[in-house]
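Changelog-adjacent note: as of this version, every example in the card shows the full chain rather than a window. The one below runs 449 residues end to end.
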Amino acid sequence: MTTGTAGIGRSEFTGRLVGRDDPGYERVRRAAIWNARRPDRFPDLILLAADEADVARGVRLAAERGMRVGIRSGGHSWIANGVRNGGLLIDLSRLTEIRFDEATGLVALGPAARGAAVDAALAPFGRFFPTGHAPSVGVGGFLLGGGYGWNSRVHGPACLSIEAVDVVTAAGEIVRADADEHPGLLWAARGCGPGFFGVATRFHVRTYRRPPIHRAVRTYPLDRLDEVVTWSQDTAPWLPAPLEIAIKIGAPPGEAEKVITIVGTAFGEDGAALLGALADAPFAARTGDGSPSSPITMAELYEESGRWSEAGLRWAVDGIWTDGPTDGVVAGTRAMVEAIPGSGSFVFILPWGAYRAGVPAAWSVQAANYVSPVAAWTDPALDDQHRAWVTDTTKAMEPVSRGVQFSDADPASRPGPGLSARSQTRLAALRRRYDPNRVFTSYLTAADL
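Full-length structure tokens:
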């Protein structure tokens, strides 16, 4: 087993190559895992790549030595999918390029660029991209996994905005995949998640006109739960696409009482009027408190959303796409909420609606609603309790599930389809073509733990 870097020629790399026997290995390994609940998985080598040339050298090194390659884009992966036992982990966290081309309206993004930085770079040009909701999300995993971001109900999952992607293949070659060259790689990059059979080192994505934004927040007591969930299933998904609804149910950190918080974010000139849908909800006239509609900036949105995915905590997450029936979603959500293990953990509901892909894409699983249990805690002694809540209550909702969203899925604990059967078949054929020796790791399974 190769556990150190002796005889590997580290001088060939601009970045840093670290082996298990090298000083500082554990610090580098831990830095590659965003979740404070770090898995006991130990790559033999970790490459902190400085550029795509480093990535290509790393892939060739792994292929020569019969090592499998895991990838960390640089943001937050709840399950640290790229960190495996043995093999080579390529950490792309230094690849943070953001370069906007005014002539084409495309922005080139390194996989470790984060949403807030992307938005700040586009703002002076009056442009917008549907970046991830949390400021700690790197665009690499976000785009490959589908990309349900700000205003995605209008522009679609962010992966559908990829026009081209620069990829290091299993042969260690650097190629650009677009509609004409390597269209299969482009198709897979649009939503196949951790099953991608290459290293995406740069994405070229469409941008859009920057909209004004309005926001309103309303809070309800828990006894309105069934009404809120019914509304989230039957009405909210079909509200105008520029209106994004997010529902969070749980006790705020340090508090005992569970509450329902509904956040409306509206994009466009008529955003303030669209937020009237919150006041029109059947439960709104009787109870509820919160802020009126007001303008908000993307920077402020990121400041607020950062509180929903705070660094330094222990996290466990899962989720399902569901089209109902409504009574099954209500009952499953109620059971999930009743079993929340402590303050700080919550149930998240995204009334998504539907979006028809206008470009060839692996992305193929969605439903009207997304329901996700999100556990957050600090004490390692509570790991089993919180993980069990997430996994068991999500399993109980499988009868109403259409599939999983890659960004939240924990396939090692609860496997579920993130792609249609047709997309899975094509993805397998493309992997055999581009990665016949299975150099790259794929979806995490129980056998990988």
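Structural remarks: The chain has three domains: 10-91, 98-210+421-435, 213-400.
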